[in-house]
Amino acid sequence: MQLSNQGILVVLFVGLVAGWLAGKIVQGTGFGILGDILVGIAGALISSLLFPRLGFHLGTGLVSEIVYSAIGAVILLLVVRLVRTGGRL
């Protein structure tokens, strides 16, 4: 699999926006540019594994990828918060 320069930029952009949205939803703040990108990309991986198994489908395109990634990132941040606080949200 080869990723062009444009493909890498799209992945970084989607990760940045999704991570920022998840940070705003869960904690009320972002994590900085690098943290938002990492959280967004991890959220995209979670959603790409979880949503097809649940039969969840929003559509295609950049906006749906951002929404998928943001939902996956929110799930990731909630799980991290549960682990950190010992089961309390």
Structure description:
The protein has 89 residues and is mostly helical. The chain has three helices and no strands. The chain has helices at residues 5-26, 32-54, 62-85. The radius of gyration is 13 Å and the shape is globular.
How large, in whole angstroms, is the Cα Rg?
13 Å
The low-confidence parts are none
Given helix and strand content, the structural type is: mainly alpha
Mean pLDDT: 85
Q: State the total count of DSSP E strands.
A: 0
User: How large is the share of residues in beta strands?
Assistant: under 5%
Total helical elements: 3
The ordered string of helix (H) and strand (E) elements is: HHH
Assembly status: single chain
Task: Give a short synopsis of this structure.
This protein has helices at about 5-25, 30-55, 60-85.
What layout of secondary structure does this protein have?
Blueprint: H1 5-26, H2 32-54, H3 62-85
Helix pairs in contact: 1-2, 1-3, 2-3
